Amino acid sequence: MARAAAPEEIYRAVAEELARLSAAGIAVVLRYETDGTATVLGGWSGTGMPAVTGRRLAVEGEGIAESVLRAGRPARDTRFAGAPGSMTDLLRRAGMRAVTGSPVVAGGRLWGW
Predict the structure, then answer these.
(1) DSSP 50
(2) For residues 45-72, b (16+ Cβ closer than 10 Å) or e, as one string?
(3) What does the pLDDT look like over 85-102, one tens digit per residue?
């Protein structure tokens, strides 16, 4: 009997495919929350970065999560100025030097809002 995949398996597969299509070493699927955080729904890393699925990270400072949230469209960023516990801090500690991001839009709205 076939079974449905768990949501975290699906998000991980989406992140892995995004990484492969963009030749990235790391890919993460986030959902923006109304309290100024983003929840990591799934991720993939070819660099050995530990999984942070389920973790809520602050969306603050200057970085890709903030740029996509502000603009509501794809962005590229080289800024990693964020407080400990922020998405920007996580990427900086992982050794990222440049990142890209794209929003998921559902029903004409940024997903999660």
Answers:
(1) P
(2) beeebeebbeebbbbbbebbbbbbbeee
(3) 888 888 888 888 888 999
16: burial class by Cβ within 10 Å (0-12, 13-18, 19+)?
A: middle
10 Å CB burial of residue 112 (0-12, 13-18, 19+) is middle
Name the band, by pLDDT with cuts 50, 70 and 90, for residue 3.
Answer: confident
**C-alpha dist (Å) from residue 82 to 5, 8, 17, 51:** 34, 26, 27, 20
DSSP 8-state symbol, 107: T
Confidence of residue 39 (pLDDT cuts 50, 70, 90): very high
The Cα 81–Cα 74 span in angstroms is 19
H helix or E strand, kind and range, residue 80? none
Tokens linked to 68: 């996509």
When the pLDDT of each residue in the chain is averaged and rounded to a whole number, the result is 88
- Written as one letter, the residue type at 34 is T
**pLDDT (average), residues 5-18:** 92
